[in-house]
Amino acid sequence: MELTAFSWTNSISPSFHFPRKFSSTRGCKGVRICCVGGNIDVVDSNKADEMTVSITGATGFIGKRLVQKLHADNHRVRVLTRSRTKAQSIFPAKNFPGIVIAEESEWRNCIQGSTAVVNLAGMPISTRWSPEIKKEIKNSRIRVTSKVVDLINDSQDELRPKVLVSATAVGYYGTSETRVFDEQSPSGRDYLAEVCREWEATALKANGNVRLALIRIGVVLGKDGGALAKMIPLFNMFAGGPLGSGKQWFSWIHVDDLVNLIYEALSNPTYNGVINGTAPNPVRLSEMCDQLGSVLGRPSWLPVPDIALKAVLGEGACVVLEGQKVLPTRAKELGFPFKYPYVKDALKTIVS
């Protein structure tokens, strides 16, 4: 249960402006307390540019990349997991010295004393939806977010994290082939929009002195995971093509840009409230498939009809058959430098 936002496509997120007070910090000062192997270790973190970051969903596609970046930049990382064994296999001590891996019973000691918390956990949605699966898609996000918020709020003032970066998804806006959405747009009315509203509302219960950034994530592109892990094998077998009509919007972001956006939100006090985690130039799915086929040297000629997807995924087929055109208005206002603003350049980098 350690994947971000919505694996594959649709994300959810509300665009309301809430009357909460956002505070900020670029680092933590004084003495911070972190857990090491279930014990408590006192760490002096007087350097303003050093952070201690606790992360849920750290073993997922996005979380792994974020942990790698934070560790490479000499920040302290606390991996909040439900499976110590899985986390240890992904972050072996010899390659990640100093990283703390904590199961749920140890989360409190890790969050207390952290500079910031990043919340990326949630069950993938690219599966056949039964009533039980739909319930778990929502509950997996609400439960972990609620636990993280409660632990933050229960912390003593001097030990409370100053920043919470919490994932949500562009599914918040609902779907449309004609409308354009940004952070000011209202929420949609479908199931995924409902999930996102409740997901974000839970994060908004964090202490008012904690700076909160809600990242509404689109379709994440990168090596070894995300949407392309499902698409590239089909194209390599000359069986790639658009899903459904191909007219649905594909609001994407390169994983490096998303990780950099989250990283910036951790340390930059101007990053607060809702921020769309999408590239500046969304495309129709047909164009995305054409570009991917071109980069791979494979044709994009075999569309997958709606009826076939619905037979396999049931109601869950809406995740790939419907989309939304989402623009990162807030990130652009903040001056965030997208490394990959165009999908063709992103794909070339990924498959090279």
Automatic annotation (TrEMBL):
Residues 54-269 form the NAD-dependent epimerase/dehydratase domain. It holds the Pfam family Epimerase. Residues 304-350 form the DUF1731 domain. Transmembrane segments: none annotated. SUPFAM superfamilies: NAD(P)-binding Rossmann-fold domains. It comes from the Eukaryota. NCBIfam families: yfcH. This is Epimerase family protein SDR39U1-like protein. It comes from Forsythia ovata.
